[in-house]
């Protein structure tokens, strides 16, 4: 049996991570843990591109549909959950756990240990919320960029929850939030980890993204968001996500239907570019061929050498 403890399939959105992970877990008799910061939320289905039922049936999946949309979550909590799931799995199996996801901060917490980060300070968060309402979120974004440009480069635009968290930590400690990572993402990851990434040509990736957006809208993304807004606040952390933000703007009458579609595609491509920029900083990532069959063969070969 492989000496590996985890196989981590990373990559930009629409690169085929979920399918590859499900097939690998099925072949190994293992489980899949999603490393996606939004698939953990119930009711957010189409916009988060959760794995199709046939993929979910191939292997047990973790970190999907475990939280309500208004429940807070962060990378540290994700790591703690993963540690528990790994321990439970290894009591029954020696097969490596398979991860799949593209959320850079969550992957960072999985692959590298963190210093102890202080818990959220309610008073600080209330102050930041009041300032955002009075001065605008852009002002806080500028402050965070000056305080912690490393962290700003990692987050998905003006993500309110992540901005507040980073500013809260700085207010408590005087340290940039990014400094709490013991490693800066350039060295080797945790022992017994194989990190792989499908290497999809840029033009093909963009075509996949555009197609995925079209399919999401056809599958009822607008209706999903409209339904969510009947029960949940539009400012929830979980809804500060590409796809949901643009549909909310459309439903509020700020942009047209066609502009909404164009914006989702543009912003998703930009998000994929940021993901790739971050992953390129990790020299330990093993790139996989573009085709699914060749990807399976390449990972299988890596497993054989790790025996």
UniProtKB/TrEMBL annotation:
Q: Which cofactor does it need?
A: Mg(2+)
> In the UniProt record, does the keyword Nucleotide-binding occur?
yes
Site feature: Interaction with substrate tRNA? 103
* EC number per UniProt: 2.5.1.75
UniProt-annotated binding residues for ATP: 11-18
Pfam families registered for this protein in UniProt: IPPT (PF01715)
GO BP of this protein: tRNA modification
Q: What are the protein's UniProt keywords? A: ATP-binding, Magnesium, Nucleotide-binding, Transferase, tRNA processing
Q: What class of enzyme is it?
A: transferase
Annotated catalysed reactions: adenosine(37) in tRNA + dimethylallyl diphosphate = N(6)-dimethylallyladenosine(37) in tRNA + diphosphate
Annotated binding of substrate, by residue = 13-18
Query: Does Zinc count among this protein's keywords?
Result: no
GO MF terms, alphabetically ordered? ATP binding; tRNA dimethylallyltransferase activity
* UniProt family annotation: Belongs to the IPP transferase family.
NCBIfam families in the cross-refs: miaA
Q: How does it assemble?
A: Monomer.
Relate the protein's function as given in its record. Answer: Catalyzes the transfer of a dimethylallyl group onto the adenine at position 37 in tRNAs that read codons beginning with uridine, leading to the formation of N6-(dimethylallyl)adenosine (i(6)A).
HAMAP family from the UniProt entry: IPP_trans
| Stated name of the protein | tRNA dimethylallyltransferase
- What organism does the UniProt record list as the source? Cyclonatronum proteinivorum
